[in-house]
């Protein structure tokens, strides 16, 4: 099952400067593991020491925020697009 993952510029040093990758995974948690296999070191930037998604990153599946779906257990289907978006703060 192929899922397209959009990588933010700040993390592209782990993806050989690629802005998009294709991975196979059944949910977000599995996607993180798949990304780590193909891009060593990226998972520690996406997850904290306990393995939870970092709070300053937002994950979207087909433009839907996973915080309003099933979080890291959000199911992925063939052809889905996952966007990783750094949170922006300020005034």
TrEMBL record:
InterPro entries for this protein: Beta-grasp_dom_sf, Mopterin_synth/thiamin_S_b, Sulfur_Carrier/Prot_Modifier, ThiS/MoaD-like
Name of protein: MoaD/ThiS family protein
Superkingdom of origin organism: Bacteria
Organism (species): Dolichospermum heterosporum TAC447
